[in-house]
Design a protein that fits this description.
single chain; 278 residues; alpha+beta; ten-stranded antiparallel beta sheet; 10 strands
């Protein structure tokens, strides 16, 4: 039996819906244990809960039952449906099916880039303590933002039975659900010349999911943080997020930080001590 006990760190995403409440308590506090994502990831997740997304998922699963190659495709998140008390249920088609589906753009989910966001972060010192000062991030339209303490994985299928990390995410030795910090990975539109969304929209043959994943891995920037905040640069624009695979939003501002709570989980084997931050 599972006799070892490990405490999983719980984090919170504080959310404000509009500028008028920016100095007030958050409109919503979302507890999470895995990740908060913005940009393309959140757009795909929101699309997956829509009627059009369900249609794409149905077509994908029908094709997957006929050929093993279709079942071996990757999903941005686990495709198992789940429903939270405040988030919508999620059932996502494979990543490449969504990106190449015209309804993803036609119905306003794509291209998935965020509005111009102003960000700040509080990094972790080498001894694991919070840094003294926050670091501002320049305003940017982000293509990809992940704030996580665990890796994202491919869907486990008969054709792909192993647990394999998602191809778009850089392998990191700092990611652990027991650590008191998160890893911020982001890719701004001003950061690279290659625009993921325009390439997909034009349906250029060279913009295959594998090439897109390679760009995400090569160009994203990372930092270990104990706090990260993003605010829309314009009072008229908002953005959506995904928290532990569930879609939320739209919001004007979010602030991610550690919760005062933890989650005790029973395991069969002892969990090694946390890694030190890089």
């Amino acid at each position: 039996s599972a006799q070892e006990v490990v405490d999983i760190t719980v984090f919170e995403c504080h959310c404000w819906k509009d500028p008028s409440s920016i100095d007030a308590p958050p409109d919503l506090i979302i507890p999470f244990v895995s990740s908060v994502e913005l940009g393309l990831n959140a757009a795909i997740n929101h699309f997956g809960t829509s009627e059009q997304g369900v249609d794409v998922r149905s077509r994908s699963h029908s094709a997957g039952s006929a050929t093993s190659s279709s079942s071996n495709t990757t999903s941005f998140f686990s495709s198992a449906s789940s429903t939270g008390p405040t988030g919508s249920s999620s059932g996502l088609a494979p990543w490449h099916e969504v990106l190449l589906d015209r309804s993803f753009y036609k119905n306003g989910f794509g291209p998935g880039t965020t509005p111009t966001l102003v960000g700040s972060l509080l990094q972790v010192n080498l001894d694991g303590s919070p840094a003294a000062n926050t670091i501002p991030l320049p305003p940017d339209e982000y293509q990809f933002i992940t704030i996580a303490n665990t890796m994202a994985f491919r869907e486990v299928t008969p054709a792909n039975p192993g647990i394999t990390a998602q191809p778009y995410q850089v392998q990191s030795s700092t990611l652990s659900p027991t650590q008191p910090w998160l890893e911020l990975s982001h890719l701004g539109s001003r950061q690279v010349n290659f625009n993921i969304y325009e390439a997909i929209k034009k349906r250029e043959k060279r913009a295959q999911p594998e090439a897109i994943s390679e760009t995400l891995r090569a160009e994203q920037r990372q930092a270990c943080v104990v706090m990260v905040e993003f605010t829309s640069a314009s009072p008229q624009t908002t953005f959506n997020i995904s928290a532990d695979q569930r879609p939320y939003g739209p919001f004007y501002r979010i602030k991610v930080q550690r919760s005062a709570h933890s989650l005790s989980v029973s395991t069969f084997c002892p969990v090694p001590p946390d890694h030190e931050p890089p």
